[in-house]
Amino acid sequence: MNFKQIQINTASPIKSQSKVMIIYTGGTFGMAHDSNGVLVPFDFALILEHLPTLRNLYLELTVISFNNPIDSSNIQPEHWQTIARIIFENYKEHDGFVVLHGTDTMAFTASALSFMLQGLTKPIILTGAQLPISETRSDARENLITSLEIAAAKREGKAMVPEVCIYFGNELLRGNRSRKTESMHFDAFQSENYPPLAKAGVKIEYNESAIYKPSATESLRLLDKIDPSISILKLFPGITESIVRGVLLSDGLKAVVMETYGSGNAPTTKWLMDLLKETILNGIIVLNISQCPGGMVLQGRYETSRTLQEIGVISGGDMTTEAALTKLMVMLGENGSIETKIKMGKSIVGELTQ
C-alpha cells in the first residue's frame, strides 16, 4: 500500500516536548473543498494552515498519509495490517501515535490494533470527525489537538495512557470496549461496559484506575496474521433453521460470533441446539455475545443459556461484537482453533471483565 511521509515541527524554534506520528487513513476528517466546492482529501503538509494552534503543543510530528485515502466502510484486515506495521516499524522513534480514521469502522480498527500490538507501552489514539476540518463547525480540530496532547502525555517519563484508544466527543475510551452509536451527533462513540479513560474539559482529567497497566518486562510484539473465516449469527424471534444452517455450515468457517438475547440466552428449540452442537463437534468455535449494548453473557444463569454451556458454546462475557470479531481473527491467524478457544474466554488487553 502506497503512502507518503511528511515532517512537521510545531516546536521550532523551541525544543520539542514529544515526537508523535499521525497516520492519516482517510475519512471525513481530512476533507476540504476544492475550487469547485467538491470535498477532496486535503494535503497534510498544509495542516498548520488549518490548525495553527498545533504550534502551541511544541511537538515534532511525522505524518504518514495514505496516497489513496480510504472511506472507512471499505476498511479491510489488510489495512489493519498496514497500520499496525507502520506503528511497529516506527515505535522506538516516537512517543505516541494518532490514527485519523473514518468513524464507521473505527471501533473495529481500534479493537484489531489492540490485539495485533501486544506489549504496548505507548498511546495509540484513533480519532476522526463527523464534519470535515474545512467546515466552520467541524469537530476535527478539537479531536486532533486533544488526541495529540494525550498521545504525548507522560508522567515520570512514562506514557499516561499506554493502550489503544478512541478519542471522540471529549471522552477517551478504550478502543476494544468502544462502538459507534451515533451518526448525527459529535459524541459518536460509547463504551457501555467500561468507564472512560479520560474526559477533556478545561483540562484533561485522567481516570488512572481504569487505564491498562502494561507489563514492565514485555516488549512490543506484532501479531499481523489475520484469519477472517468468521461469521455473525444474530438471533431473532422467527429465525429459521435453513438460515441458521446456511451460516453454521458455510464452507471454510472457523468461528461464529452468536449474538444472543440479554445475558446470553437463546431459544431452546431442538433444531437450533442440535445444529450448534454439530457445529462445535466439527471444530468450529461458537462465541456467545449479548445483543445488548451494555450486556454481559452469563451462561447458565437461565434455563435458556444452560444448554449452550453444556454443548461447548464459549461465553464472550461483556465483549463488544467488534472486539469479539477482531480478537477471533487475530487469534485464529496466530494460533489456530484449539489455542484460540482457550484465549477467547480470557482477557488479553482489557477487552472483557473477569
Descriptive account of the structure:
Strand 3 and strand 4 form a beta hairpin. The radius of gyration is 21 Å and the shape is elongated. It is built from nine helices and 21 strands. The chain has 354 residues and is α/β, with parallel strands linked by helices. It has two domains: 3-222, Rossmann fold (3-Layer(aba) Sandwich); 230-343, 3-Layer(aba) Sandwich (Rossmann fold). Helix 2 (77-89) packs across helix 3 and helix 8 packs antiparallel against helix 9. It has helices at 47-50, 77-89, 106-116, 140-152, 241-248, 270-281, 303-311, 321-335, 337-343; strands at 3-9, 18-24, 31-33, 39-41, 59-66, 96-100, 117-118, 124-127, 154-155, 158-159, 164-168, 171-174, 179-180, 189-190, 198-200, 204-206, 221-222, 230-234, 255-260, 285-290, 314-315. The strands form six sheets. It has a nine-stranded mixed β-sheet, sandwiched between helices.
